[in-house]
Amino acid sequence: MKPLVELHVHIEGTLEPEMVFDLATRNNIALPYASVDALRELMEFDDLPSFLDLYYECCAVLRTREDFRDLMLAYLRRAAAAGVAHAEIFFDPQTHTLRGVPVDDVIDGLLDGIAAARDDLEVTAGLILCFLRDRPVAEAAATLESAAHRAGDLLSVGLDSAEVGYPPHLFAEVFERARELGLRTVAHAGEEGPAAYVSEALDVLRAERIDHGIRSLEDPVLVERLRREQTPLTICPFSNVRLRAVADLAGHPLKRMLDAGLNVSIHSDDPAYFGGYIDDNHREIEAALGLSASDLDTLATNAINSAFITDERRNELL
Length: 318
Ligand code: ADE
Ligand code: ZN
Description:
Number of helices: 16
Bound molecules: adenine, zinc ion
Number of domains: 1
C-alpha cells in the first residue's frame, strides 16, 4: 500500500470545535456559540458561501504565532495517524491579516508546526498561500507582495473562497507575479463555478493543479484536454456532499472521472467541518463507489505524482 499524500486541505478547515474553544479561552475572545456541541450543530451547509461564513467566523480565535503552530501540529498529528506521508497545505493569509495578525506570524507559526511534526512524526509538508477570490484583486496583489520575502518558505500560490462570480482571469497578474517569485500555481475551479472557470484557470492562470474541478465533466472538450494533459484534479468527496455540489457519495463523479482517464486523487478540504479526514474520505468513497484495487492504486499514485516534491522524495513514496 502506498502512503497517502494530502494535496487539498485548508489549515483553517482543520480547526476542530474543541480547539476553537481552547484558543478563545487562551486569547480572551467571547464566542457566539454556547458550547462545542452547539458549534458542531451549526455545521449544516446549503452551499459553499454558507460554509465559508462559519469558517471565517471561527478563524477569529487564531491570533498568535503559537496558535498557528498548535493548529498545524494538531493537523499533522491527525494526518500522520491517517497514514499521510506528505501534505501540501493551504492557508488564507487575508483572513488573518485583515484582523491585524502579521503575515509573518501566520507563516512562522505554520512552519513551527511543520518543523515539530518533521521531528516527531516523519511527515513532510509545505505551504500554499491562497488568495481569497471574493476580495479585491488589489488586496491579493498586496498580500503577495507582503509575503514576497517569504517565497522561499512557500511551495505555491492558490485561489479559494466563494467561486461563483469571481472568475480566475481576475487574478492573472497576481499569478504571473507569483511565478516570477518562483512559486508554483494551483487554483480552486469547477467546484460550484462552471467548467469555463477550469479552462480559464489553466489558460490564464496556468494553474498546475485544479482543486475540485468536478464540473469539468459538463464540457466534453475540457474533459478530453484534462485527460490528454493529465492535469491533476484534487477531489474532496465529503466536501462535495456537505456543500451540496453532489447529492451523496454514491452519486459522486469520481468513478466516472477515473474511468475517463483523468488524473484524480482523494483529499479532505475542510475536515473539521465536513465529517472526516483523508482516511475517512478514502474509506467511505471506496465503499460507496465500489472502487477496485486498481482504482485505489491509481488514486494513490496520482496523488504522489501530482505533489510538488523532489524526484528523490517521489521515489520514496511510490
Ligand atoms: N476555503 C476553504 N474551503 C474551501 C472550499 N471548499 N472552496 C473554496 N474555498 C475554500
Ligand atoms: Zn478547498
